[in-house]
Structures are given as structure tokens and as C-alpha cells.
């Protein structure tokens, strides 16, 4: 389903890009990460990762960016014999940012800037086991609230006046506040532990892979 959606979206963008006459300089860009395609083709698990960016061109060399990055991973293994578990992992990170652009060739543009915004994630797992007809349960619940700033550097290639590809790398400076809760339940006994911590992380890497953008 995920792969079909991506191919349909790409076909729509391509038809607009090649089928419409240019009437004015486009000032809006909308794009999605092609990792959606590759994850759908090559990954057989239930993990899905999505990244979308919308840009508003304010001047010929500067744009505002609005993006949403989220991932979902859900598994459910029923207790067929002596063990089963349910897990769900969700990550959401909306950002806003600025982008500056420099044309270096007929179809090539360098760009740089920064994105910033809040982050939120949930990691939940519930384990169930049976030993000598005694059922026990362990629940692990971790939640993270934070914020990040991501300076980036990228390059894009124009396929047509309205369709282009881009790739970028970034640095990620992120702060997060973690809440952890563990609960163990067995007949007549319930134990619960909880705690919190703060974390600061700085790392570099590929920010978004390859994007397909349509301009309008």
C-alpha cells in the first residue's frame, strides 16, 4: 500500500511537471522522500518512515521550509505457546526553517540553511509469558519530549521547470527529556518502577536522502 501510494504521487507530480505550460515563476515546492519507495520494496517488516517538505519561495534565492518527519513501527506476536508480545514505536518531528540557494549551473543549485522544531516519541512494549500455567506480564513504556536544530547543506538537479531532485546532509543538535516506566505483573503481585533523564545529542549524517519535488 505504501509503495502504491508513492508511485501514484510520483506519477501525478510528473504529469503536472511535463504537461502544463509555464505561466509564471513557481513559488511553492512540495516534495517527499524516496526512502518511502525503497523501504516499501526492500523491507518486509512493518516499519514505515515518512518525510515531507513544503517550501515557499520568498525571493529568487531564499525560501521558507515546513516539514514533517514521522515513523511508525508496530508488531503483534500472539501468545501461541508460552510467549507473546506487542510493541509500538512512534516518532514525530515537525520543523520550520530557512533555505538559501545559489545556482551553479543550468540545472544545478546548491542550497543551505537550518530547520528547527519539537520532537516526540513513544516506545511501548508488552511481553506476556506462561510458565507452569502461571501468566506474567512485563510492560515497558518510554516517552521522549524534545527539540532539535538541524543546519543542512544540499544540492538539487532540475529535471524540468517544475520537477527536481534534491539531496542534503545535516548536523542534528537535539535535546530530549525521557520518561521511563516499567511494570511487572504476576498473580497477586504488581511491581512498578519509573524514572526520568535528560539527554543532549549532536551528530552528523544524511538528513533526508533523495527527495522528489514539484514546483507550482
For the structure shown, list the relevant keywords:
216 residues; mainly beta; eight-stranded antiparallel β-barrel; 8 strands; 72% strand
What does it look like?
The chain is mainly β and 216 residues long. It has one domain (2-215). The chain has 2 helices and 8 strands. An 8-stranded antiparallel β-barrel has the order 1-2-3-4-5-6-7-8. It starts with a helix and ends with a strand. The model is unreliable at 40-46 (pLDDT under 50).
Q: What percentage of residues falls in helices of 4 or more residues?
A: 10-25%
List unreliable stretches of 5+ residues. 40-46
End-to-end CA span:
27 Å
**Helix/strand structural class:** mainly beta
Quote the beta fraction. Answer: over 45%
Average pLDDT, to the nearest integer?
85
Amino acid at each position: 500500500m505504501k509503495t502504491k501510494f508513492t508511485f501514484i504521487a510520483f506519477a501525478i507530480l510528473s504529469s503536472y511537471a511535463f504537461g502544463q505550460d509555464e505561466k509564471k515563476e513557481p513559488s511553492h515546492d512540495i516534495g517527499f522522500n524516496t526512502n518511502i519507495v525503497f523501504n516499501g520494496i526492500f523491507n518486509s517488516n512493518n516499519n514505515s518512515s515518512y518525510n515531507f517538505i513544503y517550501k515557499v519561495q520568498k525571493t529568487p534565492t531564499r525560501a521558507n521550509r515546513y516539514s514533517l518527519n514521522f515513523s511508525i513501527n508496530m508488531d503483534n506476536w500472539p501468545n501461541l505457546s508460552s510467549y507473546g508480545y506487542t510493541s509500538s514505536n512512534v516518532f514525530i518531528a515537525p520543523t520550520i526553517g530557512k533555505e538559501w540557494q545559489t545556482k551553479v549551473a543550468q540545472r544545478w543549485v546548491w542550497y543551505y540553511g537550518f530547520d528547527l522544531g519539537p520532537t516526540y516519541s513513544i516506545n511501548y512494549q508488552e511481553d506476556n509469558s506462561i510458565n507452569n500455567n502461571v501468566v506474567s506480564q512485563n510492560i515497558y513504556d518510554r516517552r521522549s519530549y524534545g527539540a532539535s536544530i538541524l543546519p543542512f547543506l544540499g544540492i538539487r538537479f532540475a529535471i524540468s521547470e517544475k520537477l527536481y531532485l534534491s539531496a542534503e546532509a545535516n548536523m542534528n543538535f537535539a535535546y530530549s527529556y525521557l520518561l521511563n516506566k516499567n511494570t511487572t505483573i504476576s498473580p497477586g503481585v504488581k511491581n512498578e518502577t519509573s524514572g526520568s533523564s535528560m539527554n543532549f545529542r549532536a551528530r552528523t549524517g544524511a538528513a533526508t536522502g533523495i527527495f522528489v519535488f514539484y514546483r507550482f
